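Here is an idea for our session: we take a single protein and study its fold together. Which protein we use is up to you, so please pick one and set it down. Once you have written the record down, we can walk along the chain together:
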Amino acid sequence: MWADLWMPLSLLEPGLENARRFHPLEVIARLRRDVSQERGQAEMQAIAQRLAQAHPATNRTVGAAVVQLAEQVSGSVRPALLVVWTAVGLILLIACVNVSHLLLARGAARQRAAAIRAALGAGRAQLIRLFLTEGLVIAIFGGALGLVMALYLTPVLTSLAAQEIPRLADVSIDRGIFGFTFVIASLCGIFFGLPAAIQGAHANLNEVLKQTSAVSAGPRHVRIGAVLVLAEIALSLAVLIGAGLLVRSFAALLEVDPGFRARNALTVQVHLPVTNYDWEQAGKFFHEALFPRIRRLPGVLEVAAANTAPMRIDRTEHSRFATRFGIVGRTLRPGRFPTAQTRWVSPDYFTTLGIPLKRGRLLTESDHNKPVTLVSESLARRFFPGQDAVGQHILMDVTTPKPYALEIVGVVGDTRDFALDIEPEPTWYSVGISPTMDLVIRTAPNAGNLAGAIRRAARTAHPELGVDEIETMERVVEDSEAQRRFALLLVSGLALIAVALAGIGIYGVLSYSVATRTRELGLRIALGAERRDILRLLLWESLITLAPGLAAGCGIAFALTRIMASLLYKVAPTDPVAYAGAALFLTTITLLAAYLPARRATTIDPMESLREP
Protein backbone atom coordinates (compact mmCIF):
# COMPACT_ATOMS: atom_id res chain seq x y z
CA MET A 1 0.00 0.00 0.00
CA TRP A 2 1.44 3.39 -1.01
CA ALA A 3 -0.16 5.30 1.93
CA ASP A 4 -0.11 4.73 5.69
CA LEU A 5 -2.46 7.54 6.69
CA TRP A 6 -5.74 8.86 5.23
CA MET A 7 -7.21 12.25 6.09
CA PRO A 8 -10.65 13.75 5.35
CA LEU A 9 -10.83 16.41 2.64
CA SER A 10 -12.17 18.85 5.21
CA LEU A 11 -8.61 19.20 6.54
CA LEU A 12 -7.39 20.74 3.29
CA GLU A 13 -6.00 24.26 3.46
CA PRO A 14 -8.97 26.64 3.94
CA GLY A 15 -10.39 27.73 0.60
CA LEU A 16 -8.35 25.20 -1.37
CA GLU A 17 -11.24 22.78 -1.87
CA ASN A 18 -13.21 25.50 -3.64
CA ALA A 19 -10.33 27.02 -5.65
CA ARG A 20 -11.05 26.53 -9.33
CA ARG A 21 -7.51 27.32 -10.46
CA PHE A 22 -5.88 24.47 -8.54
CA HIS A 23 -6.54 20.78 -9.16
CA PRO A 24 -4.78 18.72 -6.47
CA LEU A 25 -7.17 15.77 -6.32
CA GLU A 26 -7.69 12.61 -8.35
CA VAL A 27 -11.05 10.85 -8.54
CA ILE A 28 -11.42 7.08 -8.25
CA ALA A 29 -14.78 5.61 -9.24
CA ARG A 30 -16.21 2.16 -9.84
CA LEU A 31 -18.40 1.80 -12.92
CA ARG A 32 -21.59 -0.21 -12.72
CA ARG A 33 -21.43 -3.60 -14.37
CA ASP A 34 -23.71 -2.47 -17.19
CA VAL A 35 -21.69 0.71 -17.94
CA SER A 36 -18.79 0.56 -20.38
CA GLN A 37 -15.67 2.69 -20.14
CA GLU A 38 -16.71 4.50 -23.34
CA ARG A 39 -20.04 5.49 -21.83
CA GLY A 40 -18.35 6.68 -18.65
CA GLN A 41 -15.93 8.75 -20.73
CA ALA A 42 -18.80 10.32 -22.69
CA GLU A 43 -20.68 11.27 -19.51
CA MET A 44 -17.58 12.76 -17.87
CA GLN A 45 -16.76 14.71 -21.00
CA ALA A 46 -20.29 16.14 -21.02
CA ILE A 47 -19.81 17.29 -17.42
CA ALA A 48 -16.47 18.86 -18.34
CA GLN A 49 -18.10 20.77 -21.21
CA ARG A 50 -20.79 22.17 -18.90
CA LEU A 51 -18.10 23.30 -16.46
CA ALA A 52 -16.20 24.93 -19.33
CA GLN A 53 -19.26 26.92 -20.29
CA ALA A 54 -19.93 27.96 -16.70
CA HIS A 55 -16.30 28.78 -15.84
CA PRO A 56 -14.43 29.56 -19.10
CA ALA A 57 -11.46 31.18 -17.37
CA THR A 58 -10.46 28.04 -15.48
CA ASN A 59 -12.18 25.13 -17.22
CA ARG A 60 -12.25 25.92 -20.93
CA THR A 61 -9.21 23.75 -21.67
CA VAL A 62 -9.79 21.24 -18.86
CA GLY A 63 -11.35 17.95 -19.93
CA ALA A 64 -11.91 14.58 -18.30
CA ALA A 65 -10.29 11.24 -19.02
CA VAL A 66 -11.67 7.94 -17.76
CA VAL A 67 -8.75 5.54 -17.40
CA GLN A 68 -8.78 2.03 -16.00
CA LEU A 69 -6.87 1.74 -12.74
CA ALA A 70 -4.77 -1.12 -14.13
CA GLU A 71 -3.82 1.10 -17.06
CA GLN A 72 -2.91 3.91 -14.68
CA VAL A 73 -0.67 1.61 -12.62
CA SER A 74 1.07 -0.43 -15.29
CA GLY A 75 0.20 1.17 -18.62
CA SER A 76 3.57 2.93 -18.93
CA VAL A 77 5.50 -0.35 -18.79
CA ARG A 78 3.23 -2.24 -21.16
CA PRO A 79 5.35 -1.53 -24.28
CA ALA A 80 8.52 -2.79 -22.56
CA LEU A 81 6.81 -5.95 -21.31
CA LEU A 82 5.21 -6.53 -24.70
CA VAL A 83 8.61 -6.31 -26.38
CA VAL A 84 10.05 -8.82 -23.90
CA TRP A 85 7.07 -11.14 -24.41
CA THR A 86 7.58 -11.00 -28.17
CA ALA A 87 11.29 -11.78 -27.84
CA VAL A 88 10.54 -14.69 -25.49
CA GLY A 89 7.99 -16.08 -27.94
CA LEU A 90 10.46 -15.91 -30.83
CA ILE A 91 13.12 -17.69 -28.77
CA LEU A 92 10.63 -20.40 -27.85
CA LEU A 93 9.96 -20.89 -31.56
CA ILE A 94 13.70 -21.10 -32.26
CA ALA A 95 14.15 -23.72 -29.54
CA CYS A 96 11.17 -25.67 -30.89
CA VAL A 97 12.62 -25.55 -34.41
CA ASN A 98 15.86 -27.01 -33.05
CA VAL A 99 13.97 -29.80 -31.28
CA SER A 100 11.90 -30.43 -34.41
CA HIS A 101 15.01 -30.93 -36.51
CA LEU A 102 16.53 -33.13 -33.82
CA LEU A 103 13.46 -35.34 -33.93
CA LEU A 104 13.52 -35.36 -37.75
CA ALA A 105 17.14 -36.47 -37.76
CA ARG A 106 16.50 -39.10 -35.11
CA GLY A 107 13.43 -40.28 -37.02
CA ALA A 108 15.45 -40.61 -40.23
CA ALA A 109 18.00 -42.74 -38.40
CA ARG A 110 15.19 -44.94 -37.00
CA GLN A 111 13.26 -45.42 -40.22
CA ARG A 112 14.42 -49.00 -40.47
CA ALA A 113 13.21 -49.77 -36.93
CA ALA A 114 9.89 -48.07 -37.71
CA ALA A 115 9.58 -50.07 -40.95
CA ILE A 116 10.15 -53.31 -39.07
CA ARG A 117 7.42 -52.35 -36.59
CA ALA A 118 5.11 -51.60 -39.52
CA ALA A 119 5.97 -54.93 -41.12
CA LEU A 120 5.06 -56.68 -37.86
CA GLY A 121 1.61 -55.07 -37.89
CA ALA A 122 1.97 -51.65 -36.26
CA GLY A 123 -0.42 -49.13 -37.77
CA ARG A 124 0.39 -45.55 -38.73
CA ALA A 125 -1.50 -44.21 -35.73
CA GLN A 126 0.66 -46.30 -33.41
CA LEU A 127 3.86 -45.12 -35.12
CA ILE A 128 2.76 -41.46 -34.95
CA ARG A 129 1.94 -41.91 -31.26
CA LEU A 130 5.41 -43.41 -30.69
CA PHE A 131 7.21 -40.46 -32.25
CA LEU A 132 4.94 -37.88 -30.61
CA THR A 133 5.51 -39.42 -27.19
CA GLU A 134 9.25 -38.96 -27.63
CA GLY A 135 8.80 -35.28 -28.54
CA LEU A 136 6.38 -34.78 -25.68
CA VAL A 137 8.79 -36.25 -23.14
CA ILE A 138 11.59 -33.96 -24.36
CA ALA A 139 9.30 -30.91 -24.17
CA ILE A 140 8.05 -31.70 -20.67
CA PHE A 141 11.55 -32.29 -19.35
CA GLY A 142 12.64 -29.02 -20.97
CA GLY A 143 9.71 -27.21 -19.36
CA ALA A 144 10.61 -28.68 -15.96
CA LEU A 145 14.20 -27.51 -16.36
CA GLY A 146 12.93 -24.07 -17.31
CA LEU A 147 10.81 -23.92 -14.15
CA VAL A 148 13.81 -24.84 -12.00
CA MET A 149 15.84 -22.07 -13.64
CA ALA A 150 12.95 -19.63 -13.18
CA LEU A 151 12.79 -20.39 -9.47
CA TYR A 152 16.38 -19.21 -9.10
CA LEU A 153 16.33 -16.37 -11.64
CA THR A 154 13.02 -14.71 -10.68
CA PRO A 155 14.36 -13.23 -7.39
CA VAL A 156 17.35 -11.85 -9.30
CA LEU A 157 15.09 -10.28 -11.92
CA THR A 158 12.74 -8.72 -9.37
CA SER A 159 15.66 -7.28 -7.39
CA LEU A 160 17.03 -5.63 -10.51
CA ALA A 161 13.83 -3.92 -11.60
CA ALA A 162 11.31 -4.10 -8.73
CA GLN A 163 11.11 -0.31 -8.41
CA GLU A 164 10.83 0.35 -12.15
CA ILE A 165 8.14 -2.23 -12.98
CA PRO A 166 4.90 -1.89 -10.98
CA ARG A 167 4.10 -4.92 -8.79
CA LEU A 168 7.15 -6.82 -10.04
CA ALA A 169 8.13 -7.46 -6.43
CA ASP A 170 4.93 -9.51 -6.06
CA VAL A 171 5.84 -11.87 -8.91
CA SER A 172 6.45 -15.48 -7.89
CA ILE A 173 6.30 -18.98 -9.35
CA ASP A 174 2.87 -20.28 -8.34
CA ARG A 175 0.54 -23.07 -9.44
CA GLY A 176 -0.72 -20.99 -12.35
CA ILE A 177 2.81 -20.70 -13.74
CA PHE A 178 3.32 -24.45 -13.34
CA GLY A 179 0.10 -25.15 -15.22
CA PHE A 180 0.88 -22.61 -17.95
CA THR A 181 4.36 -24.08 -18.45
CA PHE A 182 3.00 -27.63 -18.64
CA VAL A 183 0.39 -26.66 -21.25
CA ILE A 184 2.86 -24.69 -23.40
CA ALA A 185 5.50 -27.43 -23.19
CA SER A 186 2.95 -30.09 -24.14
CA LEU A 187 1.63 -28.11 -27.10
CA CYS A 188 5.16 -27.40 -28.33
CA GLY A 189 6.14 -31.05 -27.98
CA ILE A 190 3.11 -32.22 -29.97
CA PHE A 191 3.13 -29.51 -32.64
CA PHE A 192 6.84 -29.56 -33.42
CA GLY A 193 7.15 -33.32 -33.03
CA LEU A 194 4.43 -33.86 -35.61
CA PRO A 195 6.66 -33.50 -38.74
CA ALA A 196 9.01 -36.22 -37.49
CA ALA A 197 6.06 -38.43 -36.54
CA ILE A 198 4.43 -38.05 -39.97
CA GLN A 199 7.72 -38.69 -41.75
CA GLY A 200 8.43 -41.82 -39.72
CA ALA A 201 4.90 -43.19 -40.12
CA HIS A 202 4.69 -42.59 -43.91
CA ALA A 203 8.08 -43.93 -44.93
CA ASN A 204 8.12 -46.33 -47.92
CA LEU A 205 8.36 -49.77 -46.30
CA ASN A 206 10.06 -51.53 -49.22
CA GLU A 207 12.67 -48.86 -49.85
CA VAL A 208 13.59 -48.51 -46.20
CA LEU A 209 14.01 -52.27 -45.68
CA LYS A 210 16.27 -52.47 -48.76
CA GLN A 211 18.62 -49.85 -47.35
CA THR A 212 21.69 -51.12 -45.57
CA SER A 213 22.89 -47.81 -44.21
CA ALA A 214 21.75 -46.87 -40.73
CA VAL A 215 21.67 -43.17 -41.56
CA SER A 216 19.82 -41.97 -44.61
CA ALA A 217 18.11 -38.78 -45.65
CA GLY A 218 15.98 -38.32 -48.68
CA PRO A 219 15.31 -35.10 -50.59
CA ARG A 220 12.23 -34.39 -48.48
CA HIS A 221 14.26 -34.48 -45.25
CA VAL A 222 16.91 -32.22 -46.78
CA ARG A 223 14.26 -29.70 -47.81
CA ILE A 224 12.63 -29.77 -44.36
CA GLY A 225 16.02 -29.22 -42.72
CA ALA A 226 16.70 -26.24 -44.99
CA VAL A 227 13.30 -24.75 -44.13
CA LEU A 228 13.95 -25.18 -40.42
CA VAL A 229 17.33 -23.47 -40.71
CA LEU A 230 15.70 -20.65 -42.65
CA ALA A 231 13.11 -20.25 -39.88
CA GLU A 232 15.81 -20.15 -37.20
CA ILE A 233 17.73 -17.47 -39.07
CA ALA A 234 14.61 -15.37 -39.64
CA LEU A 235 13.45 -15.55 -36.01
CA SER A 236 16.94 -14.89 -34.64
CA LEU A 237 17.40 -11.89 -36.90
CA ALA A 238 14.09 -10.40 -35.73
CA VAL A 239 15.21 -10.61 -32.07
CA LEU A 240 18.65 -9.24 -32.95
CA ILE A 241 17.16 -6.28 -34.79
CA GLY A 242 14.97 -5.48 -31.79
CA ALA A 243 18.00 -5.55 -29.50
CA GLY A 244 19.96 -3.44 -31.97
CA LEU A 245 17.24 -0.80 -32.06
CA LEU A 246 17.19 -0.61 -28.25
CA VAL A 247 20.98 -0.36 -28.09
CA ARG A 248 20.99 2.43 -30.69
CA SER A 249 18.22 4.23 -28.83
CA PHE A 250 19.97 3.96 -25.47
CA ALA A 251 23.23 5.18 -26.99
CA ALA A 252 21.37 8.24 -28.29
CA LEU A 253 19.98 8.87 -24.79
CA LEU A 254 23.44 8.74 -23.23
CA GLU A 255 24.48 11.63 -25.47
CA VAL A 256 21.63 13.86 -24.27
CA ASP A 257 22.65 16.78 -22.08
CA PRO A 258 20.21 16.96 -19.13
CA GLY A 259 20.99 20.66 -18.67
CA PHE A 260 22.55 20.26 -15.21
CA ARG A 261 25.60 18.64 -13.62
CA ALA A 262 24.52 15.37 -12.03
CA ARG A 263 28.02 14.24 -11.04
CA ASN A 264 28.91 14.71 -7.35
CA ALA A 265 25.41 15.89 -6.46
CA LEU A 266 22.84 14.51 -4.03
CA THR A 267 19.11 15.12 -3.77
CA VAL A 268 17.17 14.85 -0.53
CA GLN A 269 13.44 15.23 0.00
CA VAL A 270 12.53 16.95 3.28
CA HIS A 271 9.15 17.61 4.93
CA LEU A 272 8.49 20.17 7.66
CA PRO A 273 5.47 19.69 9.95
CA VAL A 274 2.87 21.75 8.09
CA THR A 275 0.95 22.42 11.30
CA ASN A 276 3.93 24.34 12.73
CA TYR A 277 5.38 26.06 9.65
CA ASP A 278 3.80 28.24 7.03
CA TRP A 279 5.68 29.28 3.88
CA GLU A 280 7.39 32.28 5.47
CA GLN A 281 8.47 30.31 8.53
CA ALA A 282 9.65 27.45 6.30
CA GLY A 283 11.93 29.80 4.36
CA LYS A 284 13.45 31.12 7.56
CA PHE A 285 13.99 27.58 8.89
CA PHE A 286 15.73 26.38 5.74
CA HIS A 287 18.05 29.38 5.39
CA GLU A 288 18.89 29.90 9.06
CA ALA A 289 18.74 26.39 10.58
CA LEU A 290 19.02 23.63 7.98
CA PHE A 291 21.30 24.97 5.22
CA PRO A 292 24.13 26.10 7.59
CA ARG A 293 24.25 22.72 9.31
CA ILE A 294 24.47 20.82 6.02
CA ARG A 295 27.12 23.21 4.62
CA ARG A 296 29.32 22.46 7.62
CA LEU A 297 29.40 18.73 6.85
CA PRO A 298 32.78 17.49 5.58
CA GLY A 299 32.69 17.10 1.80
CA VAL A 300 29.69 19.41 1.21
CA LEU A 301 30.42 22.30 -1.14
CA GLU A 302 27.00 23.84 -1.80
CA VAL A 303 23.37 23.27 -0.84
CA ALA A 304 20.18 24.60 -2.42
CA ALA A 305 16.48 23.74 -2.53
CA ALA A 306 13.61 23.54 -5.03
CA ASN A 307 9.99 22.48 -4.88
CA THR A 308 11.13 19.57 -7.06
CA ALA A 309 14.59 18.61 -8.24
CA PRO A 310 15.14 17.64 -11.89
CA MET A 311 13.76 14.21 -12.78
CA ARG A 312 12.15 13.71 -9.39
CA ILE A 313 8.71 13.99 -11.01
CA ASP A 314 7.23 11.02 -12.81
CA ARG A 315 7.02 11.45 -16.59
CA THR A 316 3.22 11.15 -16.37
CA GLU A 317 2.92 14.09 -13.95
CA HIS A 318 3.57 16.97 -16.33
CA SER A 319 0.72 19.00 -14.87
CA ARG A 320 1.76 18.64 -11.24
CA PHE A 321 3.58 22.01 -11.19
CA ALA A 322 2.19 23.51 -14.40
CA THR A 323 0.81 27.04 -14.11
CA ARG A 324 -1.22 29.19 -16.49
CA PHE A 325 0.27 32.59 -17.26
CA GLY A 326 -0.11 35.54 -19.56
CA ILE A 327 2.18 38.11 -21.16
CA VAL A 328 1.87 41.81 -20.49
CA GLY A 329 0.83 43.69 -23.61
CA ARG A 330 -0.88 40.73 -25.22
CA THR A 331 -4.58 39.94 -25.27
CA LEU A 332 -5.68 37.54 -22.54
CA ARG A 333 -8.00 34.84 -23.81
CA PRO A 334 -9.85 33.07 -20.99
CA GLY A 335 -9.39 29.34 -21.21
CA ARG A 336 -6.50 29.62 -23.70
CA PHE A 337 -3.64 30.66 -21.46
CA PRO A 338 -0.23 29.08 -22.09
CA THR A 339 1.27 26.97 -19.31
CA ALA A 340 4.75 26.65 -17.89
CA GLN A 341 6.40 24.63 -15.17
CA THR A 342 6.70 26.45 -11.85
CA ARG A 343 9.83 26.15 -9.73
CA TRP A 344 10.31 27.76 -6.33
CA VAL A 345 14.01 27.71 -5.60
CA SER A 346 16.64 29.09 -3.30
CA PRO A 347 18.90 31.63 -5.05
CA ASP A 348 21.96 29.36 -5.23
CA TYR A 349 19.98 26.56 -6.95
CA PHE A 350 21.45 27.35 -10.38
CA THR A 351 25.11 27.45 -9.32
CA THR A 352 24.69 24.29 -7.23
CA LEU A 353 23.33 22.31 -10.19
CA GLY A 354 25.48 24.05 -12.80
CA ILE A 355 22.52 25.41 -14.77
CA PRO A 356 24.05 28.11 -17.01
CA LEU A 357 22.90 31.72 -17.11
CA LYS A 358 22.26 32.74 -20.73
CA ARG A 359 21.21 36.37 -20.36
CA GLY A 360 20.52 38.85 -17.58
CA ARG A 361 21.23 37.93 -13.96
CA LEU A 362 20.47 35.19 -11.46
CA LEU A 363 18.12 35.46 -8.53
CA THR A 364 19.39 36.74 -5.19
CA GLU A 365 18.17 36.53 -1.62
CA SER A 366 16.87 40.08 -1.88
CA ASP A 367 14.49 38.98 -4.66
CA HIS A 368 12.30 37.21 -2.12
CA ASN A 369 8.78 38.69 -2.31
CA LYS A 370 9.82 40.85 -5.26
CA PRO A 371 7.92 40.65 -8.58
CA VAL A 372 10.86 39.18 -10.53
CA THR A 373 11.48 35.83 -12.15
CA LEU A 374 13.90 33.81 -14.23
CA VAL A 375 12.72 31.90 -17.29
CA SER A 376 14.17 28.99 -19.22
CA GLU A 377 15.46 29.27 -22.76
CA SER A 378 12.51 27.28 -24.10
CA LEU A 379 10.02 29.74 -22.57
CA ALA A 380 11.95 32.75 -23.91
CA ARG A 381 12.27 31.18 -27.36
CA ARG A 382 8.61 30.14 -27.61
CA PHE A 383 6.90 33.24 -26.24
CA PHE A 384 9.40 35.97 -27.12
CA PRO A 385 10.69 34.94 -30.56
CA GLY A 386 13.16 37.42 -32.03
CA GLN A 387 13.11 39.48 -28.81
CA ASP A 388 15.17 39.72 -25.66
CA ALA A 389 13.05 38.20 -22.91
CA VAL A 390 14.97 40.10 -20.21
CA GLY A 391 12.91 43.11 -19.18
CA GLN A 392 9.63 41.60 -20.40
CA HIS A 393 6.78 40.86 -17.99
CA ILE A 394 4.61 37.80 -17.54
CA LEU A 395 1.28 37.70 -15.71
CA MET A 396 0.52 35.22 -12.94
CA ASP A 397 -2.84 34.30 -11.35
CA VAL A 398 -4.47 34.99 -14.70
CA THR A 399 -7.59 33.05 -13.72
CA THR A 400 -8.28 35.41 -10.83
CA PRO A 401 -9.76 38.92 -10.97
CA LYS A 402 -6.40 40.45 -9.97
CA PRO A 403 -3.44 38.97 -11.89
CA TYR A 404 0.01 40.33 -11.09
CA ALA A 405 3.08 40.88 -13.24
CA LEU A 406 6.60 39.46 -12.83
CA GLU A 407 9.61 41.03 -14.51
CA ILE A 408 11.97 38.65 -16.28
CA VAL A 409 15.46 39.47 -14.98
CA GLY A 410 17.32 36.58 -16.56
CA VAL A 411 17.24 33.57 -18.88
CA VAL A 412 18.79 30.23 -17.82
CA GLY A 413 19.45 27.04 -19.72
CA ASP A 414 16.83 24.37 -20.20
CA THR A 415 16.78 21.31 -17.96
CA ARG A 416 15.14 17.99 -18.69
CA ASP A 417 13.01 17.75 -15.57
CA PHE A 418 11.07 14.57 -16.40
CA ALA A 419 13.37 12.24 -18.34
CA LEU A 420 16.18 12.36 -20.85
CA ASP A 421 13.81 11.51 -23.69
CA ILE A 422 11.27 14.26 -22.83
CA GLU A 423 12.07 17.66 -24.29
CA PRO A 424 12.48 20.53 -21.79
CA GLU A 425 9.27 22.38 -21.01
CA PRO A 426 8.98 26.16 -20.59
CA THR A 427 9.79 26.94 -16.97
CA TRP A 428 9.82 30.02 -14.76
CA TYR A 429 11.73 30.27 -11.47
CA SER A 430 10.95 32.31 -8.39
CA VAL A 431 12.62 32.60 -4.99
CA GLY A 432 10.55 30.66 -2.49
CA ILE A 433 10.63 27.87 0.06
CA SER A 434 7.69 25.64 0.99
CA PRO A 435 7.37 23.13 3.86
CA THR A 436 8.16 20.28 1.42
CA MET A 437 11.29 20.72 -0.69
CA ASP A 438 13.98 18.80 -2.51
CA LEU A 439 17.48 19.68 -1.33
CA VAL A 440 20.26 19.62 -3.90
CA ILE A 441 23.71 19.13 -2.36
CA ARG A 442 26.99 19.53 -4.29
CA THR A 443 29.75 17.40 -2.77
CA ALA A 444 33.48 16.98 -3.22
CA PRO A 445 34.53 14.11 -5.55
CA ASN A 446 35.83 12.00 -2.63
CA ALA A 447 33.14 12.90 -0.11
CA GLY A 448 31.95 9.31 0.36
CA ASN A 449 28.52 8.38 1.72
CA LEU A 450 26.94 11.41 3.40
CA ALA A 451 23.43 10.01 3.91
CA GLY A 452 23.84 9.36 7.63
CA ALA A 453 25.46 12.74 8.30
CA ILE A 454 22.71 14.56 6.37
CA ARG A 455 19.99 12.81 8.37
CA ARG A 456 21.69 13.70 11.66
CA ALA A 457 22.10 17.34 10.63
CA ALA A 458 18.44 17.51 9.62
CA ARG A 459 17.23 15.99 12.89
CA THR A 460 19.46 18.40 14.81
CA ALA A 461 17.82 21.32 13.00
CA HIS A 462 14.34 19.97 13.76
CA PRO A 463 13.59 16.62 15.45
CA GLU A 464 10.36 16.17 13.48
CA LEU A 465 11.84 16.98 10.07
CA GLY A 466 11.03 14.21 7.60
CA VAL A 467 14.00 13.14 5.47
CA ASP A 468 13.31 10.80 2.55
CA GLU A 469 14.97 9.38 -0.53
CA ILE A 470 18.60 10.48 -0.30
CA GLU A 471 19.94 9.67 -3.76
CA THR A 472 22.73 10.76 -6.05
CA MET A 473 21.61 12.84 -9.01
CA GLU A 474 23.37 10.36 -11.29
CA ARG A 475 21.12 7.62 -9.91
CA VAL A 476 18.06 9.84 -10.39
CA VAL A 477 18.99 10.35 -14.05
CA GLU A 478 19.52 6.61 -14.48
CA ASP A 479 16.18 5.80 -12.84
CA SER A 480 14.35 8.11 -15.24
CA GLU A 481 15.20 5.65 -18.00
CA ALA A 482 14.95 2.48 -15.92
CA GLN A 483 12.18 0.95 -18.01
CA ARG A 484 14.18 1.40 -21.21
CA ARG A 485 17.23 -0.11 -19.54
CA PHE A 486 15.14 -3.03 -18.26
CA ALA A 487 13.84 -3.76 -21.76
CA LEU A 488 17.34 -3.34 -23.24
CA LEU A 489 18.97 -5.78 -20.83
CA LEU A 490 16.29 -8.42 -21.22
CA VAL A 491 15.98 -8.19 -24.99
CA SER A 492 19.77 -8.11 -25.45
CA GLY A 493 20.14 -11.20 -23.27
CA LEU A 494 17.35 -12.93 -25.17
CA ALA A 495 18.98 -11.94 -28.48
CA LEU A 496 22.23 -13.63 -27.42
CA ILE A 497 20.26 -16.75 -26.49
CA ALA A 498 18.51 -16.64 -29.86
CA VAL A 499 21.81 -16.36 -31.74
CA ALA A 500 23.30 -19.21 -29.69
CA LEU A 501 20.30 -21.43 -30.44
CA ALA A 502 20.42 -20.52 -34.12
CA GLY A 503 24.13 -21.29 -34.26
CA ILE A 504 23.58 -24.65 -32.58
CA GLY A 505 20.73 -25.44 -34.96
CA ILE A 506 22.73 -24.53 -38.06
CA TYR A 507 25.68 -26.54 -36.82
CA GLY A 508 23.41 -29.54 -36.16
CA VAL A 509 21.72 -29.37 -39.55
CA LEU A 510 24.96 -29.12 -41.48
CA SER A 511 26.63 -31.82 -39.35
CA TYR A 512 23.74 -34.17 -40.10
CA SER A 513 23.90 -33.22 -43.78
CA VAL A 514 27.62 -34.06 -43.91
CA ALA A 515 26.99 -37.39 -42.12
CA THR A 516 24.34 -38.39 -44.66
CA ARG A 517 26.37 -37.22 -47.69
CA THR A 518 29.61 -39.00 -46.87
CA ARG A 519 29.52 -41.14 -50.04
CA GLU A 520 28.67 -38.13 -52.23
CA LEU A 521 31.45 -35.98 -50.78
CA GLY A 522 33.93 -38.87 -50.90
CA LEU A 523 33.03 -39.45 -54.54
CA ARG A 524 33.60 -35.76 -55.35
CA ILE A 525 37.03 -35.94 -53.76
CA ALA A 526 37.83 -39.20 -55.60
CA LEU A 527 36.89 -37.54 -58.93
CA GLY A 528 39.36 -34.71 -58.33
CA ALA A 529 37.59 -32.11 -56.18
CA GLU A 530 39.99 -30.18 -53.99
CA ARG A 531 39.44 -30.00 -50.25
CA ARG A 532 38.84 -26.26 -50.51
CA ASP A 533 36.19 -26.96 -53.16
CA ILE A 534 34.27 -29.13 -50.68
CA LEU A 535 34.61 -26.42 -48.03
CA ARG A 536 33.44 -23.75 -50.47
CA LEU A 537 30.50 -25.93 -51.60
CA LEU A 538 29.14 -26.48 -48.09
CA LEU A 539 29.63 -22.86 -47.04
CA TRP A 540 27.94 -21.69 -50.22
CA GLU A 541 24.96 -23.96 -49.49
CA SER A 542 24.74 -22.35 -46.06
CA LEU A 543 24.78 -18.88 -47.59
CA ILE A 544 22.04 -19.87 -50.04
CA THR A 545 19.86 -20.78 -47.06
CA LEU A 546 21.01 -17.67 -45.19
CA ALA A 547 19.86 -15.13 -47.80
CA PRO A 548 16.10 -15.90 -47.74
CA GLY A 549 16.30 -16.31 -43.97
CA LEU A 550 17.70 -12.78 -43.62
CA ALA A 551 15.01 -11.42 -45.93
CA ALA A 552 12.27 -13.16 -43.95
CA GLY A 553 13.79 -11.96 -40.67
CA CYS A 554 13.79 -8.35 -41.88
CA GLY A 555 10.13 -8.75 -42.80
CA ILE A 556 9.27 -10.16 -39.37
CA ALA A 557 11.21 -7.38 -37.64
CA PHE A 558 9.54 -4.74 -39.81
CA ALA A 559 6.14 -6.01 -38.64
CA LEU A 560 7.01 -6.52 -34.95
CA THR A 561 9.22 -3.52 -34.16
CA ARG A 562 6.21 -1.19 -34.44
CA ILE A 563 5.38 -2.14 -30.85
CA MET A 564 8.79 -0.76 -29.83
CA ALA A 565 8.16 2.76 -31.13
CA SER A 566 7.49 4.19 -27.65
CA LEU A 567 10.75 2.69 -26.35
CA LEU A 568 12.91 4.23 -29.08
CA TYR A 569 14.54 7.65 -28.91
CA LYS A 570 15.72 9.35 -32.09
CA VAL A 571 15.81 5.92 -33.78
CA ALA A 572 13.20 4.76 -36.27
CA PRO A 573 11.81 1.19 -36.11
CA THR A 574 13.26 0.79 -39.62
CA ASP A 575 16.73 2.08 -38.70
CA PRO A 576 19.06 0.73 -41.45
CA VAL A 577 22.11 0.61 -39.16
CA ALA A 578 20.33 -1.74 -36.71
CA TYR A 579 19.07 -3.95 -39.55
CA ALA A 580 22.46 -4.09 -41.30
CA GLY A 581 24.38 -4.67 -38.06
CA ALA A 582 22.09 -7.50 -36.98
CA ALA A 583 22.26 -9.12 -40.43
CA LEU A 584 26.07 -8.89 -40.51
CA PHE A 585 26.39 -10.32 -37.00
CA LEU A 586 24.06 -13.22 -37.77
CA THR A 587 25.85 -13.91 -41.06
CA THR A 588 29.14 -14.18 -39.17
CA ILE A 589 27.61 -16.56 -36.61
CA THR A 590 26.07 -18.65 -39.39
CA LEU A 591 29.38 -18.98 -41.24
CA LEU A 592 31.18 -19.92 -38.02
CA ALA A 593 28.53 -22.53 -37.20
CA ALA A 594 28.74 -23.92 -40.75
CA TYR A 595 32.54 -23.88 -40.93
CA LEU A 596 33.17 -26.61 -38.35
CA PRO A 597 31.16 -29.40 -40.04
CA ALA A 598 32.27 -28.13 -43.46
CA ARG A 599 35.90 -28.31 -42.33
CA ARG A 600 35.29 -31.84 -41.03
CA ALA A 601 33.89 -32.81 -44.41
CA THR A 602 37.21 -31.93 -46.06
CA THR A 603 38.89 -34.68 -44.00
CA ILE A 604 36.71 -37.46 -45.46
CA ASP A 605 38.77 -40.37 -46.82
CA PRO A 606 37.28 -41.16 -50.26
CA MET A 607 38.38 -44.81 -50.07
CA GLU A 608 36.69 -45.33 -46.70
CA SER A 609 33.50 -43.52 -47.74
CA LEU A 610 33.17 -45.51 -50.99
CA ARG A 611 33.53 -48.79 -49.08
CA GLU A 612 30.53 -47.96 -46.89
CA PRO A 613 27.38 -49.94 -47.85
